[in-house]
Amino acid sequence: MKHLLKLGDLSSTEINEILNLADQLKYELKNGIPHEVLKGQTLGMIFTKASTRTRVSFETGIYQLGGNGLFLSSADLQLGRGEPIKDTARVLGRYLNGIMIRTFKQSDVEELAEYSGIPVINGLTDYCHPCQVLADFMTIREIKGSLKGLKLCFIGDGNNMANSLIAGCIKTGMKIFVACPKNHMPDKNLCEEGKKANILTITDNPFEAAEKADVVYTDVWASMGQEKEAQQRAKDFKNFQVNAELMKKADKEAIVLHCLPAHRNEEITDEVLEKHAAEIFEEAENRLHAQKAVMVKLMKK
Ligand code: CP
Ligand code: NVA
Questions:
Q1: 126 catalytic residue (yes or no)
Q2: How confident is the model at residue 155 (pLDDT cuts 50, 70, 90)?
Q3: Chosen CATH of 132-283 out of 3.60.21.10, 3.40.50.300, 3.30.565.10, 3.40.50.1370
Q4: Cβ contacts of residue 209 below 8 Å, gap of 6+?
Q5: 205 C-alpha to center of ligand 1: Å?
Q6: Do residues 119 and 298 lie in contact, with contact meaning Cβ atoms separated by under 8 Å?
Q7: Which of 12, 20, 187, 265 has a CA-to-CA distance to 235 between 20 and 30 Å?
């Protein structure tokens, strides 16, 4: 494993190893056991979009591993003034030990990886959000004991989160039911792969998707970069809300996850979010542990 560009690039074994290491690093942190295994290493963190969790968890995480994090807003880099990615990559590769990037196009992340010569981690693109799903799976394992055979339902936009959840379920053997409007479907190739692997069902009926689900997952209706479409999207998604009525369909012990930030009373009611806050904020915390595991796997000499 050289980079984390998307989950489909990892084997099931690699995903399992990351989750096990994440559990270990969480245990070590909670028990004051030092784990400065990336001493002297620097992670550059390029952001072309906003972030709370990704930025703070990566910066804190690399510090806890003995290294240093550099926040690089694309607006302040020459990248923002048109310097090509492949030039930026070849320069940064000579200073840094790893790069985390959050941006729009998946192809930009792939190009950065091709030219930098150092590990690149995808911190979200329009296509996928692999770090988030590693933290999600870590959380599900913690609460439910294992992943295989569980039923996850995703209610809402077939965007980056839905794509990465499908990719992750293909690798881990979880069943995923995606409920989305017909004009907001997940990536076509991933849908085909998921159906071939016999783990994916797509429907436009959220109640059908939620039936006996062990995990109920949702994400915002208008993602970063789609702000102008927000009004139309609110109409398209009005029947795709995680609320008390939908939760009645899910398993009695079902957990609710949300990558956050949440828009209360849009994709999820305030009531359901607060009822499941313990799981949702554990999930947010687990970003730290899962990403530390990814950095160790990619950057430890
Ligand atoms: N879930 C997530 O990636 O959050 P941020 O946008 O705050 O980083
Ligand atoms: N789909 C959301 C996820 C945020 C973590 C977005 O891309 O804005």
A1: no
A2: very high
A3: 3.40.50.1370
A4: 153, 154, 155, 177, 178, 179, 201, 203
A5: 27
A6: yes
A7: 187
